[in-house]
Specification:
This protein has a single domain, classed as Alpha-Beta Plaits. 20% of the residues lie in helices and 38% in strands. It contains 4 helices and 15 strands. The strands form 4 sheets. Strands 14-13-8-1-7-4-15 form a 7-stranded antiparallel sheet. The chain is globular. The two termini are 22 Å apart.
């Protein structure tokens, strides 16, 4: 069982998407479905982009971040029902395709679901303060233009707070609560979000998470949490390293 550190170092960042966002579910094909919030893999990818990780060493950089980061998030805008767009994909078949009219090509429809101008609050922590300071500096002065989700989904990131993150007990969750929580006041949506990569092609998913319509979400009893910021926002944090280790051990046992 993982030992809980006496404190972490971390920051709160608000990610505003001024146009659209699509956090594609990896199992979707011609029907492109979106998660209602960015997966943790997407957040780690954005951080890697801000740090300027180059393509040849990109996966090694992702693994390094997965080893040190603890994460959670919540939407700052109301949880949306995704909008939908339709694209018509033309199949260019045959040698004389340049001479044919576009309407004469075989085609297939592709529907894509997306969110309109969402904003999210990201809670990021680590036991390594140097890593936290490096990430904060990179988000303030990124090496490359930042996006969240698809490469044309621009994001504006503002670091709202940075400091020590301390363990506490609370019945108020200011980020996605872990587990299937029953809300007496509101329904919740249950999610398992892509969290990390055990290998380049093997995705590790988060524990089961609850997405309520409003925050803070009141739990039936106090639970161990972490306290962020001057206003004392208490959140569950997911240790990425530990979840990858558990998934790897589970896979080895099944094998």
């Amino acid at each position: 069982m993982m030992s809980v550190p006496s404190k972490l170092y971390g920051f709160i960042a608000d990610a505003e998407m001024p146009y659209f966002a699509c956090f594609r579910k990896p199992t979707s094909t011609s029907l492109v479905l979106t998660y209602p919030v960015p997966p943790f893999t997407t957040i780690i990818g954005m951080v890697a982009n801000a740090l300027g990780y180059s393509r040849p060493n990109y996966f090694e950089g992702i693994v390094k971040l997965q080893e040190v980061l603890w994460l959670n998030l919540r939407p700052l805008t109301p949880v949306q029902r995704p909008s939908r767009e339709l694209a018509k994909i033309l199949k260019l078949v045959g040698e004389a395709r340049e001479q044919r009219k576009p309407t004469s090509f075989p085609s297939s429809p592709m529907y894509k679901y997306f969110l309109v101008r969402p904003t999210f609050r990201l809670f990021v922590a680590s036991e390594d303060n140097d890593t936290v300071m490096e990430i904060v500096e990179a988000l303030r002065h990124p090496n490359r233009p930042l996006y969240l989700g698809q490469s044309d989904d621009m994001v504006i990131v503002k670091v709202a707070w940075q400091g020590e993150v301390l363990p506490t007990q609370s019945d108020q969750a200011w980020a996605l609560p872990i587990g299937a929580q029953e809300g007496a006041q509101q329904p919740v949506e249950l999610l398992r979000l892509p969290l990390a990569f055990a290998h380049e092609r093997q995705v590790v998913y988060s524990p089961l998470l609850s997405l309520p319509a409003d925050f803070p979400f009141r739990l039936p009893h106090p639970e161990p949490m972490w306290c962020f910021g001057e206003e004392g926002e208490t959140v569950h944090l997911i240790c990425v390293r530990e979840e990858v280790r558990n998934a790897t051990v589970g896979e080895a046992r099944r094998g």
